[in-house]
Design goal:
By secondary structure, the chain is an alpha/beta fold. About 40% of the residues lie in helices and about 15% in strands. The strands form three sheets. Strands 1-11-8-7-5-6 form a six-stranded parallel beta sheet. A three-stranded parallel beta sheet has the order 3-2-4, with helices on both faces. A two-stranded antiparallel ribbon has the order 9-10. Bound molecules: guanine (GUN).
Length: about 300
């Protein structure tokens, strides 16, 4: 392997220590404790595992944290009423409703119901609009994680040729919007590829920074990567289980061969994953501090 490994676990730990220190300061000087509620509907094991990780991080950082485990058959009206209760709860600064929701619940309606000031996922259209127009309140967690991994690994984003593979609302569209902003830690030239792009490798081969969020193993093979490129793999795909029943996870990038071509690469697991929850904690801290806007602070957002 020739590529430098971008260690998400280590960088996440650094940021968590910064958050921990700020939480202690807020408690000491303002008697303020950041509060997060995570709401999960149903029994999906992957969603339950993600939410456990979020609660564990919140508890570990000294947040006030509440978990709502709701039955699959809860009505939309009951769920919306619960969201509204937390919109009004002064001890709660961040509300996270784990997605996907069961089919009888309208996800858009639920996302719209979360107060934009407590929308630590940054999924509400007000927050999407604020990001697109260059005045974000919160950055969505996975894209914020990607930006921090790049910045804290010393990757120059300004003026770089960035190619994003995948156009989801959670990763592809927002990371493209973040990196093309006229702002510190951005100012890149961004291309988005997707399932209807004619020749993906024509684009990926010119990328100095390649961000892959396609949801399919081996979407990116070594012949598709420019020598020396920085490769950020957002994929998490389960390809089987070990004899002990542990999930075997791979990303969207064919890791071993691509590591021989790239200049730097994130592993799966241990790359983007550990950072995402950390960015949720950062958003909750920001919500508690009622930081008005990230404008001009994108680069140092973990310290704002
Ligand atoms: N499901 C998968 N990723 C996410 C996320 O980032 N936020 C929420 N709320 N649900 C998810």
């Amino acid at each position: 392997m020739t590529a430098k490994l971008i260690n998400g676990k280590e960088i996440a730990q650094q940021i968590r220590e910064e958050i921990r220190a700020e939480v202690a300061r807020l408690q000491r000087e303002k008697s303020l404790t950041p509060g997060l509620v995570t709401i999960i509907v149903g029994e999906d094991p992957a969603s339950q595992s993600y939410v456990r990780g979020k609660q564990k991080a919140a508890n570990d950082l000294g947040f006030y944290s509440v978990q709502e485990n709701l039955p699959t058959n809860i009505s939309e009206k009951e769920l919306l009423a619960l969201v509204d209760k937390y919109n009004k709860d002064k001890k709660i600064h961040g509300i996270l409703v784990q997605l996907p929701l069961p089919k009888h619940l309208n996800e858009d309606k639920v996302i719209f119901a979360v107060s934009p000031d407590k929308d630590v996922d940054a999924f509400h259209p007000v927050n999407v609009g604020r990001l697109v127009t260059g005045n974000p309140l919160f950055l969505p967690c996975t894209p914020a994680a990607i930006q921090q991994l790049l910045l804290r690994s010393g990757v120059k984003i300004e003026g770089a040729e960035v190619v994003v593979v995948g156009r989801s609302n959670i990763v592809g569209k927002p990371i493209a919007n973040i990196l093309l902003q006229k702002a510190a830690g951005a100012n890149a030239t961004v291309t988005i590829c997707h399932t209807r792009t004619k020749d993906i490798s024509r684009h990926t081969k010119r990328a100095e920074i390649l961000i892959v969020a396609a949801g399919k193993p081996k979407t990116i093979t070594a012949d598709m990567v420019k020598p020396g490129a920085v490769v950020i793999d957002v994929g998490i795909n389960e390809i089987g289980k070990t004899t002990e029943g542990k999930r075997i996870l791979v990303g969207d990038v064919d890791f071993a061969p691509v590591s021989e071509v790239a200049g730097a690469i994130t592993p799966v697991p241990g790359g983007v994953g550990p950072m995402t929850i950390t960015m949720l904690m950062l958003n909750t801290l920001r919500a508690a501090k009622k930081v008005k806007s990230l404008k001009g602070k994108v680069k140092n957002c973990s310290k704002s």
